[in-house]
């Protein structure tokens, strides 16, 4: 009976829960959406970047995690990561706080992070939005189209796009798949590659980053993680993660989750498989926690739940 309840909570995505801001369609054929970036946008992004650190996640003040991560292995060669993300809208996120469910590919001080976030400082609202964040050689940090070298491909879905319909706690559920993949560009005989962000089950390209942006991540990643992340200034109580409920693992209708988590290794012909040599990490299990179900079944693959009410102050 418990298994039945668990699976019923993982129903299909339903309609694509996106708001493209236009009636009928996205941009005209042959064009892509351009997000206007004002001076105020740049100031707010700079303020937020000052609160983001590229050090070990165990030591980042104000940041809290509930993630599945690969164990440290400098010899690991990752060429892609992917996951379906449940689309909850975290409540009670204010000021310079944020709450996100995301995945990260990294090597040294280079990272590509993408997922969905509520970030009122960056976006001036409390909608759940698609985002990407880069750390370049531990010195430069940037969001979305503000990152140097980023090329937008998708004519309907830019980075920063709002999610129109989000999951209801205990009710209808929605999820979207994201993938970061090393992809050859320039023809069948080309040896040039880019880091490409794919969207949904048909793997539509959102955009890509040239490898020349990075140092060690210019060829491959050696670390990856998936799950929830929140940030709050130390003098404020940390915001909720996911549903905001105390963690429990009965059904996905009551927990933020990632499913069909995958990693592509350089020696595996770019095929995505259940990641190996992993561990779970919760920076404060009383406020935020994670459950790794391992490989659940063919439909849901590798599955994790992560959630929490927050409320941490001064750490």
Walk me through the topology.
Blueprint: H1 2-8, H2 39-49, E1 63-70, E2 78-86, E3 98-107, E4 110-118, H3 120-123, E5 129-136, E6 140-143, E7 151-152, E8 175-184, E9 193-199, E10 204-209, E11 223-231, E12 256-265, E13 272-273, E14 278-282, E15 289-295, E16 302-307
Antiparallel strand pairs: 1-11, 1-14, 2-8, 2-12, 3-4, 3-11, 4-5, 5-6, 7-10, 8-9, 9-10, 12-13, 12-16, 15-16
Quick synopsis:
The protein has 315 residues and is mostly beta strands. It is 7% helix and 36% strand. The chain is built from 3 helices and 16 strands.
Features:
mainly beta, seven-stranded antiparallel beta sheet, 315 residues, 3 helices, single chain
Explain this structure to me?
The protein is mainly beta. Helices cover 7% and strands 36% of the residues. It has 3 helices and 16 strands. It has helices spanning 2-8, 39-49, 120-123; strands at residues 63-70, 78-86, 98-107, 110-118, 129-136, 140-143, 151-152, 175-184, 193-199, 204-209, 223-231, 256-265, 272-273, 278-282, 289-295, 302-307. The strands form 2 sheets. Strands 2, 7, 8, 9, 10, 12, 13, 15 and 16 form a 9-stranded antiparallel sheet that branches. Strands 6-5-4-3-11-1-14 form a 7-stranded antiparallel sheet. β3 (98-107) and β4 (110-118) form a beta hairpin. It is globular. It starts with a helix and ends in an 8-residue tail after the last strand. Mean pLDDT is 85; it is low at 1-16 and 20-33.
Query: Order of helices and strands, N to C?
Result: HHEEEEHEEEEEEEEEEEE
- Tertiary shape: globular
* Poorly predicted ranges: 1-16, 20-33
The biggest beta sheet is recorded as: 9 strands, antiparallel
Helical fraction: under 10%
Tell me the number of strands. 16
Number of helices: 3
Strand content: 35-45%
Q: Rg, please? A: 18 Å
Give the termini distance in whole angstroms. 41 Å
Mean pLDDT equals 85
Structural class call reads mainly beta
């Amino acid at each position: 009976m418990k298994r039945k309840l668990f699976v019923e909570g993982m129903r299909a995505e339903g309609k694509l829960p996106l708001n493209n801001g236009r009636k009928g369609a996205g941009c005209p054929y042959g064009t892509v959406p351009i997000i206007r970036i004002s001076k105020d946008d740049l100031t707010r992004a700079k303020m937020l970047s000052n609160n983001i650190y590229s050090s070990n996640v165990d030591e980042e003040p104000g940041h809290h995690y509930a993630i599945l991560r690969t164990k440290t292995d400098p010899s690991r060669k990752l060429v892609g990561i992917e996951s379906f993300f449940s689309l909850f809208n975290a409540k009670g996120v204010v000021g310079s706080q944020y709450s996100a469910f995301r995945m990260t590919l990294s090597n040294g001080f280079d990272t590509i992070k993408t997922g969905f976030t509520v970030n009122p400082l960056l976006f001036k609202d409390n909608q759940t939005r698609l985002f990407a964040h880069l750390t370049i050689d531990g010195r430069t940090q940037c969001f979305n189209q503000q990152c140097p070298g980023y090329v937008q491909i998708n004519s309907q879905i830019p980075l920063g796009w709002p999610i129109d319909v989000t999951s209801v706690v205990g009710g209808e559920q929605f999820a979207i798949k994201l993938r970061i993949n090393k992809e050859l560009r320039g023809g069948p005989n080309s040896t040039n590659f880019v880091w490409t962000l794919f969207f949904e089950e048909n793997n539509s390209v959102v955009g890509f980053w040239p490898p020349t942006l990075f140092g060690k991540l210019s060829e491959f990643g050696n670390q990856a993680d998936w799950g929830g992340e929140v940030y709050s200034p130390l003098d404020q109580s940390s915001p909720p993660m996911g549903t905001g409920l105390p963690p429990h693992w009965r059904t996905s209708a009551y927990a933020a989750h990632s499913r069909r988590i995958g990693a592509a290794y350089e020696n595996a012909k770019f095929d995505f498989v259940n990641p190996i040599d992993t561990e779970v990490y919760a920076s404060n299990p009383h406020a935020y926690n994670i459950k790794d179900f391992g490989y659940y079944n063919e439909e849901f693959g590798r599955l994790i739940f992560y959630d929490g009410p927050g409320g941490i102050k001064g750490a």
